[in-house]
Amino acid sequence: MSEIKKTLLSSAAQESIDRWMKRYPADQKRSAVLEALRIVQEENGGWLTVELMDAVAEFLEMAPIAVYEIVSFYSMYNVKPVGRYVLNVCTNISCMLSDSERIVDHIKKRLEIGINETTADGRFTLREVECLAACAAAPAMQVGKKYYEHLTPDKVDAILEELE
Ligand code: FES
User: Fold this and answer.
1) Residue 73 CA to ligand 1 centre (angstroms)
2) What domains does the chain contain, in order, with CATH numbers?
3) What is the pLDDT of residues 27-46, one digit of tens each?
4) DSSP letter at 118?
């Protein structure tokens, strides 16, 4: 790895990625790419720059384009700065039928932001996402590692207050 790119990944991140790489055969380092991107994103305040994606690609001996494709495919990666809490509201079919639009509209009004926007205080980013695999508990929202289900505007208010 070149010195310039290497310095973009902290030694802690490199060690964590190394540990993930060891779970796979030596010629399949790229299998650790999802975890590598998660580690680097978390360390960078919740989003990935092109330079960081390039550094991950080089570290895992992958083509940068392959890393960009992965980042653009999964909604858990961000390529722009985001708020401390990213509100991922599912608007796929089950949630849509359970009135997820009302949930999205409520959040927009309460936080005075649109989809993919962040509150002025940097606290919340609102996003619409595809199925969160919580269809039986629609409408659903994911914030970090936590799922919130059977949402109503009142429940959303309580969640936002808890996160504030
Ligand atoms: S459609 Fe929303 S969780 Fe599946």
Assistant:
1) 17
2) 3-73 (1.10.10), 85-163 (3.40.30.10)
3) 999 999 999 999 999 999 99
4) B
Q: For 98-110, what is each residue's pLDDT tens digit?
A: 999 999 999 999 9
Pocket of ligand 1 (CB under 6 A): 90, 92-95, 131-135, 138, 140
* Residue 17, φ and ψ in degrees, nearest 5: -65, -40
Smallest Cα–Cα separation from 21: which of 56, 48, 54?
56
Tell me if 47 sits within 8 A of 41, measured CB to CB. yes
Measure the CA–CA gap between 111 and 74, rounded to whole angstroms: 25
Mutate to test the pocket of ligand 1, among 104, 132, 148, 151 (most ligand atoms within 8 A of CB): 132
Neighbours of 95 (CB within 10 A): 27
